[in-house]
């Protein structure tokens, strides 16, 4: 039997996923995601965010990583715990795909940030009608 310290060390960098297609949990070793907040996306991609607001894409199945993203913008009193949702607009290959957009919705905010891999900065959009509650991308259109 492992001590608590040994068990914690052994589980470092591990993430648990649930597969709907086979109805079971899968535990993967992902040291690239250690200490980072993760959001699931489509086609095996995870969006990871460090405490320094450094964002990257990680394909948990193919073990590919895309780091060509600018640091996520910080707003007054916002940190990574104030991010409500991050999504990808489309399937992403393991190379930089300028047609794919990442969209970040901040919690309790009117702000949406948008960027493509390889771009130098985020474009921020601010709602004039109130707080944003959700964001989806469907058939080439962004709905907020």
From TrEMBL:
In terms of superkingdom, the source organism counts as Eukaryota
| Domain KIB1-4 beta-propeller intervals | 17-144
Protein name in UniProt:
KIB1-4 beta-propeller domain-containing protein
